[in-house]
Amino acid sequence: MNTAPVLEIPETLARGYPQIRDSESEFVGAPLAKTFPTSASVRQTNSLSQISKQSIRTSLRASTMDGVFANIFSSITSGVLLTNFLLQLGATPVEIGLLSSIPLLMNFLQPLGAHFADRTTSRHWYILAVFGPSRLLWLILVAGIAWFSCCDTDSHQLVGWTLGIIFITNLLGALGSCAWFSWMAALVPQRLRGRYFGFRNSAASLTNLLCTPLLGFAVMAWPGGSIQGYGVLLLVGVAIGLVSLGCQFWMTDVNPQANCATKSLVSQKQTTHSEYEGRGIFKDSNFLKFLLYIGLWTFAVNLSSPFFNLYMLKNLGLDLSTVTVYTGLLSAANLVMLVFWGRIADRIGNRPLLLLTGVLIAVTPLLWLGAGSDFISLWVWLPLIHLVCGGLGAAIDLCNNNIQMEVAPKNRPSQYFAITAAVSGISGGVGATVGGFFAGLDVISGLPGLFALSTVLRLVALLPLVFVREPRSQPIIQLVQNIPVLKLRLAPVSVARIVQPRG
Fold it and tell me: Widest CA span of the chain, in angstroms?
């Protein structure tokens, strides 16, 4: 039997990437297919191998670049740019709700994707086979926009084209997302995840901060109109999406089939996950509590979040360039806070941070009720809302991803990741769909009533998280007692000192 690969665990990140030291070590728990630091060709092996320090650095750098280019592609094919495109075509609030619900509902296929991915011999080639066609399919919409620009046809037909492409591309994406998540869980050391993913997401947020306003101005300034401008932008986005996939050739590949050889090695490591590894997934009470939390939370969030851009563009009458500036502010706050939250999460755990920031992010929909189109709202209130949502949302997104890795056993993470994605996808998709219908109801005053309802449900969704056990998280009471101000106020004073006479 081959020896277990051992990785050194860094305490700090120099130049933003993990530096491997000789003083500490930790088992990553994943077999490797091949390490290729300078070659863009993949060669597969089935044996366990030692992960070199340089291979880890190269893989994490490549993953970061992958995230940067993928974020540009995602900014073009989703978010405010796509919402504005559909509104220009005459989309209804229900169709805007479907725009957000389809990607989430497709996540119910992630268990099937995990089943297929775990039977391949390469994470890299499986992901390439799934996401390559998924991104090329957007060229159909580019052709549709070109046809619309040349012929006098009903623009609303493109709405159906767009929703159909979103359906197919997200169906393919659901089959590959779990494989990517398992790949990253294998490559990134456990104690480094908060800091690394904080850095990776910060790089993506910086890209979004710089690109989204520029892309919005480009669409609005295009001589042929915003619809034609979006078509040109979409063509560029597809090319960037393919560059993103190309970056994965410099990441160390993982062979899922060799994972069975590591199960005995993992069992020898006395981890806090050991009590769950012998149980069925749906007999794992801790995981079921986590599923209840993630399902309720994604439903409550997606009940309102897909309609914030709609509220600004339609209800407040703001133009696209102004909304993209706000989106840039959200990305800026996300960028500034991600690394900070990553370090905090590594120190106190993901669950306490989710609870503390979750209460704050839960009430943010109420802030939209005070927004208008006046000077104060445009230059103070709306920017403040986006800064708060971006800063707190960074902690939610980061910790929700990382806590999945913590509650899942190391010998079969793909099944846990897939079920989590399926539950969150279905609940989030249902939330966005229900929100689309509620947005048009006068009985709750439309979007303002929807935002208030979302706040209540977000607070309720945090209750199951209180009972989730994360192996290395600190109790909330202990954290509160360690706050310096409260620590001084709650410090015990001896009776002898109180009654002791002075002088």
Answer: 98
Amino acid at 63: S
Within 10 angstroms of residue 151's Cβ, the number of other Cβ atoms is: 7
Q: Where are the alpha helices (DSSP H) in 363-468?
A: 364-367, 375-376, 382-407, 413-438, 447-461, 463-466
**What class, spelled out in words, does domain 6-39+49-261+282-499 have in CATH?**
mainly alpha
- Cα separation, 463 vs 292, whole angstroms: 10
Q: Which residue has the tokens 């991915």?
A: 117
Per-residue confidence (pLDDT) for residue 133, from 0 to 100: 94
138 pLDDT above the threshold of 50: yes
With b meaning 16 or more CB within 10 Å and e meaning fewer, what string describes 460-478? ebbebbeebebeebeeeee
Q: What is the pLDDT of residue 26?
A: 30
What integer pLDDT is reported at residue 411 of this predicted model? 66
In 3D, which of 110, 133, 73 has the Cα closest to residue 418? 110
Cα gap 345→429, rounded to integer Å: 28
Whether the per-residue pLDDT at 329 is higher than 70: the answer is yes
pLDDT digits (tens, 9 = 90+) for 220-269: 888 888 888 999 999 999 999 999 999 999 988 888 877 545 544 444 44
- What are the structural domain ranges in the chain? 6-39+49-261+282-499
Note the Cα 14 to chain centre separation in Å: 24
> CB of 34 within 8 A of CB of 125?
no
**Predicted model pTM:** 0.68
Q: What is the DSSP letter of 137?
A: T
- Please tell me the distance from the alpha carbon of residue 4 to that of residue 31, in angstroms, as a whole number: 9
CA dihedral for 102, 105, 109, 110, sign (positive or negative): positive
